[in-house]
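Possible regression after last week's pipeline update?

I re-ran a chain I had predicted before the update to compare outputs. Posting the input and the new output here so someone can diff against the archived version. Not blocking, just want to make sure nothing changed silently.
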Amino acid sequence: MNILGLRKEYPWKIVSIEEESGLTSVITLEPKFNKRFTFLPGQGAFFNFPKIRGLWKPRFFHFTSAPASAPVIEITVKAVDDWTHRVSLLEEGDIALCSKATGNFLGHEDFSAREKRFVFFAGGIGINPFISILSHLALTNSNCKILLIWSANNREDLYHKETLKNISETMPFFNIIPFLTHDPMWKGEKSRISEDKLRILIPEFFGFNEDSWLWDGPATGYWINGPASFSEEIKNILKRMGVSSRNIRVEKIRK
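New output (post-update):
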């Protein structure tokens, strides 16, 4: 029976399940088929786990590993609903069914060409495709300048800290600024992402003052991934600041 319907299925075996932070787990899988499986940074696939009742229906996850990690792949799952809470019932050796890689958020971008400066906006688990992209860029010695702005509730919602630390050490022109909205002890940004904050933080990171920064310059791309309300809010803020649609790329969290 093809559980994924019309989608091509690929069987994978769970190699490890590691708790990353709070309710977040990293699942590493290896293929149980001979055909080469490829994906581009920023892509994902539909997964289901036939062993666990309730996990038969496929759910989309962005890969959090770089394509160079193949044939092993990695996805990161946060327990936010009944489906994702049931992931805790999985064990090493269990089988996953996975569709072919899909999504064109960032996959076809040549990072050495048109856009040299990037601002990534992640809302919650919207960080996942950016983890894959940044890992890929770190492995390819990219000289892109990238500012990652991550909105989350509290420090427990910040995961892949070791991965991001290693990326920071490899990429000299990368920085991450978390905005934590429900963490009173946090010493960094505590508010929602706002126009006033962005007018200061973005030019400052790229070495400009606000008056000399070109918000709609062709060398800068603004990429957004998160819940629909988050993506719409950030897109509207950027447009008010003068960024045109051609420089804004929006992905969405899928279910």
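Follow-up from reviewer: compared with the archived run. The chain has a mean pLDDT of 90. Marking as no regression found.
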